[in-house]
Amino acid sequence: MPSTLGFALLGLLARTPSTGYDLARRMERPVGYFWTASHSQIYPELAALEREALIEHVVVEGPGPRPTKRYAVTPLGRSALAAWVATEMEPQPVRDLETLRLWSVWAAEPAGALSLVDQMEAGHVARLAAYAEELAAVTADPHSADPRHPQFASRLTLEGGVRARRTAVEWCRWLRTQLPAPAE
Amino acid sequence: MPSTLGFALLGLLARTPSTGYDLARRMERPVGYFWTASHSQIYPELAALEREALIEHVVVEGPGPRPTKRYAVTPLGRSALAAWVATEMEPQPVRDLETLRLWSVWAAEPAGALSLVDQMEAGHVARLAAYAEELAAVTADPHSADPRHPQFASRLTLEGGVRARRTAVEWCRWLRTQLPAPAE
DNA sequence: TCTTCCATGTAACGCGTTACATGATTTT
DNA sequence: AAAATCATGTAACGCGTTACATGGAAGA
User: Fold this and answer.
1) Which of the listed residues A49, A74, A84, B45 has the most CB atoms within 10 Å of its CB?
2) DSSP A65-110
3) Chain B partners within 8 Å of A80 (Cβ)
4) Inter-CA distances, A82 with A178, B8, B99, B103, B109, Å
5) Band of residue A63 on the pLDDT scale cut at 50, 70, 90
6) B62 C-beta less than 7 Å away from strand D
7) Is strand D within 7 Å of residue B139 (CB)?
């Protein structure tokens, strides 16, 4: 069974066949919003997926000293991906550096507390804008209404991102009402 | 400079001096909502924090073959924690297994899609209940109004948890309205 | 000519999880 | 008498990040 990264790559390749390099770039934008990986992780994982016959590659002409490989999902890989989506899994532990810092905010000066909340809010506002823009683009695509089309799933995840970030921004604004005014 | 885990432990010890064993248990409940660690990680990290004079220990009587050590934060550790809270940090990448699975839901049968959303909702509902209960308990403590008291920060983080989970549950309910009805 | 982009890999290191190891006290 | 809890550590392994290494094609 592939690792989580393996299924992330399977999901990417099921949408569009790509080279390893291309996967690394695609990991930054749309999937990157909830999963990331660098190329040094991707290449070995592609080899592992191919060993299990979940993907296969064709060599295409390209630059550089090594052959350029374009990977695609096999029927076996496609059904493995579909099965994994519905697999029973226990909820994974949360790891949130921001909340961890806020949890020790009582030990800091009022100015430091305000600085933290400002940082948090700025980050969430930026993400919200990015998600909202992408959601608008995806919703404009009529494929996003078809449950068996990738754009449909993109729409669902982006909607979640927008809702989560909107809530986070509201929370940050509320946090500021709770903090004491720093001494001038 | 300590690792993130180091600051998590510093935050715990600033609230209440504890043994390593005790820290491992405390990592499960209140902090465990946004950071976790097992005892095998904690013991080496305590040694590292002590080497940097951020914490110190006294030996107390206790069971077992080795001495029982109760750790407490030093003034140096306390100021390191306060400084870390307000440190400038770039937003960390999100890693969300649930959303990653949802992102490939277009490849699954309608029944599988529904199963995934049900799982997600159940998890968020359970967490919401736990956070809400704890928030009620913390808010009842008058210390939670004092910005320099640990309970104050606990209240802020729990409020964020409740808001986030409430939004997530709503999102899951919305997701179900988007999914096709599975064939009977 | 120089820099950026395309493209693929390996190596070293750090963090996190699981498993191994020990043994006294307290509860069932 | 057996099991659970308190208590501390080490070892092995996997995943993720950063750095090292190579070299052609395209653009500035």
Assistant:
1) A49
2) SS-EEEEEE-HHHHHHHHHHHT---PPPPP--HHHHHHHTGGGS-H
3) none
4) 46, 38, 14, 11, 7
5) confident
6) yes
7) no
B4 touches strand C (CB under 7 A): yes
What part of A 41-100 touches B (C-beta under 8 Å)? Answer: 78, 81-86, 88-89, 91-97, 99-100
Q: Could you tell me where the DSSP H helices lie in chain B?
A: 4-15, 20-26, 39-51, 75-85, 97-103, 110-140, 150-178
CA distance B150 to B56: 21
In tens, the pLDDT along A82-104 reads: 999 999 888 889 999 999 999 99
> Which positions of strand D lie within 7 Å of protein CB atoms?
5-12, 14-20, 22-25
Rounded to whole angstroms, the Cα distance separating A136 from A36 reads 23
Q: Do B112 and A85 touch (CB under 8 A)?
A: yes
Helix or strand (DSSP H, E) at A43:
helix A39-51
On strand C, nucleotides with any atom < 7 Å from a protein CB are 5-12, 14-20, 22-25
B117 within 8 A of B172, measured Cβ to Cβ: yes
pTM: 0.95
